[in-house]
Amino acid sequence: MLNDILKQLTARAKKSSRQLINLSTDKKNAALLKMAESLLEQERYILQENAKDVAAGKKSGMVESLIDRLTLNERRIRSMADSLRQIAQLEDPVYQTIEGYLRPNGMYIQKRRVPIGVILIVYEARPNVTSDCVGLCFKSGNAAILRGGSNALNSNRAIFNLLQEACASEGVKEAFFFIDSADKEAVDILVRDCASNIDLVIPRGGQSLIEKIVSISRVPVIKHYKGVCHIYVDKELPDREQALSICLNAKVQRPAVCNAMETLLVHEQIAGDFLPRFKKAADAHAVELRGCARTRQILKGVKAAAEDDWYAEYLDLILAVRVVDSVEQAIEHINTYGSGHTESILSSNTFTIEKFLKEVDSACVFSNISTRFSDGYEFGLGAEIGISTDKLHARGPMGLRDLTTYKYIVTGNGQIRE
Amino acid sequence: MLNDILKQLTARAKKSSRQLINLSTDKKNAALLKMAESLLEQERYILQENAKDVAAGKKSGMVESLIDRLTLNERRIRSMADSLRQIAQLEDPVYQTIEGYLRPNGMYIQKRRVPIGVILIVYEARPNVTSDCVGLCFKSGNAAILRGGSNALNSNRAIFNLLQEACASEGVKEAFFFIDSADKEAVDILVRDCASNIDLVIPRGGQSLIEKIVSISRVPVIKHYKGVCHIYVDKELPDREQALSICLNAKVQRPAVCNAMETLLVHEQIAGDFLPRFKKAADAHAVELRGCARTRQILKGVKAAAEDDWYAEYLDLILAVRVVDSVEQAIEHINTYGSGHTESILSSNTFTIEKFLKEVDSACVFSNISTRFSDGYEFGLGAEIGISTDKLHARGPMGLRDLTTYKYIVTGNGQIRE
Question: Which residues from chain A sit within 8 angstroms of residue B407, using beta carbons?
């Protein structure tokens, strides 16, 4: 039954996705602005539906941090509308030419960006993901299918319906789809049995959700795993104060996000000087340090880091600290324990920097800046659908372009192959 | 047991892959030329090992076409060596800058190509795939793991060992790996249990092999499915003789390959004139036609096409023929029955062509040329690892660049995030 419903819905999505390439940029932008307007106008309705989810969540004993993610207010709705308006201002990637060249036999080859097709977004309790993902997929010409957490079903449905009505009022129908079911099995059915109608699944949620989808999906998955970000402080430091300020910024400016530093690696020749200074600054922000044996010789009283700490994404004011022998050991540590997200080296030696940037196998590798810059806006991509820790198709911050694929268009005048 | 062996082997591959980015282009090219030389020098040894596989295949009743694919001879070994030499001449994509730009805060962002990491190639009875894939993965800085068909184990092992020795003699060790086991379970273990050490799997083989891998793999897969290629002959034809020659070329020049035409779609207003002429030309090449009802009204005596014929990749001198009402119906037919490989429109009307090129959802869309041009060499990419019918990461002919991913390298001088 659910199986049939989902097969029909994904078939409709596939069919409609084929027409979206014909929508002009003007039309898409007008619809995005209308969607933003509608969210603001219908704020009371959204809050009323959201209150149902929040009440049910509290009743069922949902943890405080999840209640917080679930809860909408005026400010959050305004921010959802702002995102849609920003997406309207971004460059439209659809049908852009990536390359164009003439072949010796006179054929002209163009490699042009086209929408991927149907994108399934699986997410958890944040209702703002509904409008963000609709906006990004719509602008890039993809048919989005949204499957939000069952705890946020009323909120997501309300937001989705408003977006859809706004879009329809601009003459665009069936551009995005909503799985209006709390049935846990829906995701399995979608990624396993409806694979021929879905081109990509992007899970936005915790590791267990992502791993479950990867293990059953026949649809390609782009994963946004955790960010175990490192800073390596080299022995040849350009400026000690600068290094302190970068490390502090990476840890404390917003500790709960994926591009915050989780492990600090310090060269042994500078650790004796650098670590006490860093501890003093970190103490002022109540950062808990967990150190290796050598760290604890320098910083007496610091808690010992266990093996698990090197893998940890704390998302909190906690930091693992290790003293290393060399840049080689720092690279080895990162490639062993890291999550391939973002790492930064602080050094003045161009050869050391080059080695680090080349050999660290992560989406984003930085020199002499904070890891916190790993972000679509900071990179100038505009809004992002996430930060891919995968290597295939898209790596690092994923903007509108990363929601497209390409086709080869070859035009000729009678060429045949000899 | 096999599980442990494969986990250790893939862990070694992962480790070695991290060093391959440091190999200079000169070093890689020298090793490729040495590999080519070694295959030619050791031709007798390869033929002797291959003869064992061929004898076993014949004894076990292997079908003639498979025996043919399995069998090596002097010419085929020379062609393997030539491929390696050609790969040495191709541009090295590793560490090329895709984009570089300055941000307002002074950070400089570079998006640069890097190897994907560890690539598993699963293939069937063709021993030449061993050297082609080693060459392409090696030049693009990836650690290849090769898993060939058990029927070709002696041949593949011989080729692999020669390539590895040649590479080692140039000082490069552990750059590619061979699964020296006929155990059918090896592939399952690799893509399911060794996923953390493998970045990509490319199955090169029939549909059942590909589907099996997709259903169990936790590693991203790039599929090279079948090519059900179409030509649509529009009512506004530039030149009837040219159209005939293109259609004939696409069908008969090499019918057993994936970019040969399998279905011909003809606009109703021109079918009465075009189809009899085409049949005459096709008859001269003994092409069997299978037509829709309208086709059979024009071409008396032609066999009726069944529903299955529209999905068929004949790889033979057989062609499905359908008369359509419009370019819209042609597009709809292709998007319904096609495999997303390659399609061509023959027309002189720029609006009709534009519509076809835009709305047909295939990797390669052509106008007024033969589908046979869908090929890495013809596109100027050099050697190809295959033609992707997927949309993620790589679509259409996959050359060296498509065997790379990218990383964001951001350099600064003390930037922190406010």
Answer: 362-365, 395-396
